[in-house]
């Protein structure tokens, strides 16, 4: 399960950086807290489906691209 969280977090970080967003900017666009984004990227949080949807919308990608 940790591999899945790490893979997911790495994808969030990669997509965020490709779009030139800081963690704070992504958090603002997704209506989430900056520390939460960091915890997801470091695989410290098991993210909910609702927040996955918020992040995919903020990054303008389909949910499947996050996995």
Automatic annotation (TrEMBL):
**From what superkingdom does this record's organism come?**
Bacteria
Tell me which InterPro entries the record gives: Cro/C1-type_HTH, Lambda_DNA-bd_dom_sf, TransReg_Diox_bact_type
Q: Which SMART domains match?
A: HTH_XRE
Output the Gene3D superfamilies linked to this UniProt entry. lambda repressor-like DNA-binding domains
Q: Which residues form the HTH cro/C1-type domain?
A: 12-66
An example Gene Ontology CC term for this record: cytosol
Keywords (alphabetical) are: DNA-binding, Transcription, Transcription regulation
Which Gene Ontology molecular-function terms are recorded? DNA binding; DNA-binding transcription factor activity
Instruction: Cite a single Pfam family from the UniProt record.
Output: HTH_3
PROSITE patterns, per this entry?
Answer: HTH_CROC1 (PS50943)
Report the protein name in the record.
Transcriptional regulator, XRE family protein
């Amino acid at each position: 399960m940790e591999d899945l969280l790490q893979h997911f977090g790495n994808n969030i970080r990669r997509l965020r950086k490709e779009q030139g967003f800081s963690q704070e900017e992504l958090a603002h666009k997704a209506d989430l807290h900056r520390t939460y984004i960091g915890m997801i990227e470091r695989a410290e949080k098991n993210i909910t489906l609702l927040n996955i949807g918020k992040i995919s919308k903020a990054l303008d990608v389909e949910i499947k691209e996050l996995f």
